[in-house]
Design a protein that fits this description.
Helix content: over 70%
Shape: elongated
Order of helices and strands: HHHHHEEHHHHEEHHE
Structural class: mainly alpha
Low-confidence stretches: none
CATH class of the largest domain: Mainly Alpha
CATH architecture of the largest domain: Orthogonal Bundle
CATH topology of the largest domain: Tetracycline Repressor, domain 2
Strand content: 5-15%
Number of strands: 5
Length: 204
Amino acid sequence: MLKKKKVDLRVLRTKKMISEAFVELFGEKGYDQITIQDIADRAMINRATFYLHFKDKNDLLDQIFEFALASFSKILDPSIIQKGNQLQIKKLEAVIAEVFIEIKKNKTFYQVLTESNYINKMKEQVAKHIQVQYQHIFSQLKVTENDFEVPIDFIIEYMTAIFVSTVHWWLMSDSNYPPEQMAHLLIKLVGNGHLTVLGLEVIY
């Protein structure tokens, strides 16, 4: 029987310190102005330690982004909210609330992300993730308008834009809406309109 590789807590702590330092600097001075030395100084490590864990700052940003997407993947499990062609709205609302909670935990990072050129990559990756996770649902849909079939990738792009824009507003405004209330508002806006027009049966 193969033994599981033991996780080195020191490595995890170091990567966490580097990531947190990078996010702080990103918010203060912008991506282009950050140097590896800046990150090392803020994380209280040397440059050699940085390069043990990351190739460069692009690799660091990519890994942080991938970690965020992985967190969403666990939350956005389609089996939780979907049965056949039905979407269970209350469960969907709870799932979206969890996404907002996850974003709130890393608020500074997502503020920076949605204010930078990286927002396009965020939209692209979220759309790709939704398409893969919910492929079996979308394959059942056929949305037409005046005998013209609406492309599924357009629908996904549209819904992704709504979500990312909502997150951006929530992070950048002075709103004190808690994650649960944001999820409720989002469902209120799209539940009976956008989802039903896609041919999905919405149940509460």
